[in-house]
Amino acid sequence: MFSGIVEEAAVVTRLRKENENLHITLRCSFTGELKIDQSVSHNGVCLTVVEIAGDEYTVTAIRETLDRSNLGQLEAGSKVNVERSMMMNGRLDGHIVQGHVDQTAVCTEVREADGSYYYHFEYETTPEMRRRGYLTVDKGSVTVNGVSLTVCTPTDSSFEVAIIPYTWANTNFCQIKAGTVVNLEFDIIGKYIARLMEHR
């Protein structure tokens, strides 16, 4: 489980395909604190550390993960938002994030507003997906590339988020522009409520 409070933007150093799997090697400041089998969120996707060498570590994404996320679009030099799993004796600064990406969205607009930034995202939706809780609500929570954010002006298939300068500078939001594909995880509480309502 994660909180959506990104620790830093790690840098992809190598990518290696093996059958339908993608091995992703990254460099970040806390590599020395990682261990094999540890879970780390990458752009909101929970992946297992499978190898550590110096200041680099490797995780593996399977076909299901690549189909549902933007990890298949990574290149050497890409920045990836990373967060280690939440410690149960700490504060929950963001919201409950599972690291199970639901789908991708596309950034359609970025606009600056007196030092902060507004990002508009659009995503595919169907009545069935909305019944399953794949939706956003005004002032609710959503995870974008692993970042816990508050929803603004949602519609059935879009929403906006406001990004403060610190988040812009310390995550890969600084690289997101119109046309960029991002990962979405909708609020787990909303999904449970939607499921309960379906079975009333």
From TrEMBL:
State the name under which the record lists this protein.
Riboflavin synthase
Q: To which species is this protein native?
A: Candidatus Aphodosoma intestinipullorum
Determine the domain of life of the protein's source.
Answer: Bacteria
Q: Where in the numbering of this chain does the Lumazine-binding domain appear?
A: 1-95, 96-197
Q: Where are the Lumazine-binding repeats?
A: 1-95, 96-197
What SUPFAM superfamilies does this protein's entry cite? Riboflavin synthase domain-like
Pathway assignment:
Cofactor biosynthesis; riboflavin biosynthesis; riboflavin from 2-hydroxy-3-oxobutyl phosphate and 5-amino-6-(D-ribitylamino)uracil: step 2/2
- Is Transferase one of the keywords? yes
